[in-house]
Amino acid sequence: MLSFYIEQLAGSLPFFLKGLGMTVAVSGLSLVAGTVIGFVWGIVRAKRVRVLTLLLGAWVDVIRGTPFLVQVFIIFFLLPEFGIQLEAFPAAVIALSNLAACFICEIVAAGIAAVPAGQREAATSTGLNWFQQLRYIVLPQAMRVILPPLVGQYVLLIKDSSVVSAIGVVDVTRVGWLTVQRVPQGLLVFGLVALLYFVICYPLVQLSSILEKRMSSGYNR
Amino acid sequence: MIEFKDVHKWFGELHVLNGISLTVDAAEVLVVCGPSGSGKSTLIRCINRLEPIQKGELVVDGMKVHDSRTNMTKLRAEIGFVFQQFNLYPHMTALQNVTLAPMKVRKTPRKDAEDQGRYCLEKVGLGDKLNQYPAQLSGGQQQRVAIARGLCMRPKIMLFDEPTSALDPEMINEVLEVMRNLAREGMTMIVVTHEMGFAREVAHRVAFMDMGEIIETAPPAEFFARPGSERTKLFLSKILTH
Predict the structure, then answer these.
(1) What span, in angstroms and rounded, lies between the C-alpha atoms of A103 and A157?
(2) What ipTM was estimated for this complex?
(3) Contacting residues of B for A115, CB less than 8 Å apart
């Protein structure tokens, strides 16, 4: 009996791979966009422009303090009420990018804050402007603090992307739902779903711990 | 070259600079001493506007530091600053540390900047450490790289904020030696330090600060032999007899 189901499952493997492709597409796009936006927000937050910092802080708190599923629903079901109609895919990417940006913003701001003030003073005293200081002095040092948790955050976000299946994006999780209706072996089906997530995430988990080790080992080269 | 006119500065309630008036001429070496918290560091940090002043006038090389319209990049390029804690860039080699500002601020081509950087590092006795990272250098060597970083911009003025205070005793002299040479070459310098031997030998004038005021300024011979105020005497008796 079990072997019959396994065979059936093997038959839907292309369907699963397509779902995996969708998961990779949603996560990939969102991580790129979220990283770019998150760095900009993080830099703005670290610069302490009062109004902007306050606004960003409030936004980040709201996003971090509400369930991602609810955020996805708001973007997909409520925005149309205000005339903004989105397909499931862009709605998913926007929601996940925003979530990513909020977490990455905090990581970046913390990384920048970890660079000693003396570094900026030294750069200021030689006449480097704000952007040059950021580019040549602050960010290269902050990246040592930022990179390990950033990659760790990527893993969490890829897993969070499963939530977008709720609005009909046919990602790996959604493929699991659909398959389990034909193949009534939940453990088997979602075991496969879990395995596929694990295949993407495990290398990143490893990368994060390698970075952690490498980045904590001083500047002696 | 540097002129303070009744300069005041507050950190919140704290009146850290209380009516400073002081002139430093080109090629002059001024040593500033005084108890900790007297405002010496703040005084020199105002000169390149690492700290803003709240009242008074501060003119450096003909530019008004207190005026927000002044091009600070241009002014800072003319002023080298050496910190107590060195503040070298840990992710860059010695040569990269000294060539960054010439390339980015002065727009010197890389090759010329590197020639200049090598020259400056040789000048502070570190011609063989070009490609070392700060963490691979001793404290004295790091501070000499920091001095070279200032010199590499070909500044008109060099400011030193307790440059030897964070160093082990055996490394102090190698840093002071570099500063002596600079003074001999006619660099305009303000040095905040407790190294009274250096003050006696190199300074043209010594200023004593306490509680945000300059109590007295005099040539070293006079300053040490006949201090004019009780506070100066007390301070000197403390640091010269330890």
Answers:
(1) 10
(2) 0.91
(3) none
Q: Does position A217 have pLDDT exceeding 80, yes or no? A: no
The strand pairing partners of B157, in sequence order, are B79, B188
pLDDT mean over B91-118: 96
A50 shares contact with chain B (CB less than 8 Å): no
Is B81–A132 a contact, with Cβ atoms under 8 angstroms apart? Answer: no
Q: Which residue of B has its CA nearest to A142?
A: B91
Residue in A60, A38, A57 with CA at minimum distance from that of residue A48: A57
A194: amino acid identity, one letter: A
C-alpha dihedral, B182 to B188 to B193 to B195, nearest 10°: 50
Mutation pick from A121, A124, A126, A147 vs chain B, by most beta carbons of B within 10 Å, is: A126
pTM attached to this predicted model: 0.88
The CA distance from B171 to the nearest CA of chain A, in Å, is 21
Neighbours of A53 (CB within 10 A): 16
pLDDT 10s digits, A13-31: 899 999 999 999 999 999 9
Mean pLDDT of chain A: 91
Q: Kindly report the nearest CA distance between residue A141 and chain B, in angstroms.
A: 7
